[in-house]
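Late entry, evening session. Most of the bench is empty. Finally got around to the prediction I had been postponing all week. Sequence below, unchanged from the version circulated by S.P.
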Amino acid sequence: MSAVTTDSNAGDKLKTFERKTKRAERARQKLISRDEKAERKRAARNGFSNPANPTRSLLLTVLCAIFAVYSLLPFLYLIINATKTQSDFTSTFGLSFGNTFALWENIATVFTYQNGIFGRWFINTVFYVVVGAGGATLLSIMGGYALAKFRFPGRNLCFAVVIGAISVPGIALAVPQFLLFAKVGLTNTPWSMIIPSLVSTFGLYLMWIFSDQAVPDELLEAARVDGAGEMRTFFQISLPLLAPGIVTTALFTIVATWNNYFLPLIMLKDSDWYPLTIGLNQWKDQASTAGGQAIQNLVITGSLITIIPLVISFLLLQRYWQSGLAAGAVKE
């Protein structure tokens, strides 16, 4: 009798547990259904918040459209006016094409005007970028990596100096640099352009922060345990992990060196060493000199040719750049 009573009590408890489980499941399903219905209403009103179907906002759309027009309008102006002759440039509206399509003629004239001096300016600019910006990128990589992964006396002082140097505008240092280079006789030489370009405080800070996040300390310790030296660890292990930061730093230094205007303006007097920025400005001012010829169509065409390498660089390096934008955003 006792065994029968025990089995009956166990059966009642099991049925009670099953009923509670079913009620809990029904309550959970109701909650899920209610949440799904609320999400569908919200999505129908605002759109899903994901990259494939972002939240729609009329204000943000208008602001982005204004910014896009502001950014693309100068480029459109260059393209349109590079197709004009000098007479069409001065007699037609800036955003309308002229009577003659002279783009190819203008390009040919740009490279032959004044015995082809534009080609010399272009080569000078590429040389300053390769040596100056390339050196600045390399020094930023090595300096930022060392500051991020090594502990040494004065490290915090270095951090303070770098942060302070970022806040100093480059134009404020141009005159002291000119006086210093004049003392050692390096003005009007390529060194007066290359040496200042080798220093990029922002690039150093950027690589410092990126190296600290992108290169795990455990990976470096494992390489050292396996017998790898510091140089091998840096070039074979750390450098591939720093690719997005390297590309970002390289883009900043390339653009800064390519568009540098004030430094070569005060350092260089010989037109054979001019970069494109100073050379095109000299062509622009030519019409204001006595007996000078107005060649705005060549200046516009030269400006269009000047920015093409930068556009190509951004397009080619964009995928490496974007690959590191979310680095460290997800904690595993």
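Two things to note before I forget:
Residues 58-91 form one domain.
The CA atoms of residues 36 and 311 lie 46 Å apart.
Will write this up properly tomorrow.
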